[in-house]
Design goal:
Elements: E1 4-7, E2 10-12, E3 18-24, E4 34-39, E5 46-51, E6 57-59, E7 67-72, E8 77-82, E9 91-100, E10 105-106, E11 114-118
Parallel strand pairs: 2-11
Antiparallel strand pairs: 1-3, 3-8, 4-5, 4-9, 5-6, 7-8, 9-10, 9-11
Length: 120
């Protein structure tokens, strides 16, 4: 089981930006395909952006053009840069290993996540 810890959430106004970080505690991290997921109030958890061990990326339509996923294998971290945030982006954000790239299916138990609140 990979140990991934999310951070970087907070309160931001509509149109603002946040940078989320997902940190791993093991050196095999650079072999993982990793995804950022979110759970909006009253909704099921959904994948937002995926990044492969080789750096290929994939985004949900709502994230395209606004969110950027990147990885820093030296620091064992996956980042999600979010810009032009909207009220409807409010929710808890999580990272996880991916077992199915096509579906963005997560692999490990969920961590605590990080809360993103977009509010004026």
């Amino acid at each position: 089981q990979a140990q991934l810890v999310e951070s970087g959430g907070g309160l931001v106004q509509p149109g603002g930006s946040l940078r989320l970080s997902c940190k791993a505690s093991e050196s095999t991290f650079n072999t993982y395909n990793i995804g950022w997921y979110r759970q909006l109030p009253g909704n099921q958890r959904e994948w937002v952006a995926l990044i492969s061990s080789g750096g290929d990326t994939k985004y949900r339509d709502f994230a395209k053009g606004r969110f950027t996923i990147s990885r820093d294998d030296f620091r064992y971290s996956i980042n999600l840069q979010m810009t032009a945030l909207k009220l409807e982006d409010t929710g808890a954000y999580y990272c996880n290993r991916i077992v199915d790239w096509a579906r963005g299916t997560p692999y490990d138990p969920w961590g605590q996540g990080t809360q993103v609140t977009v509010s004026s």
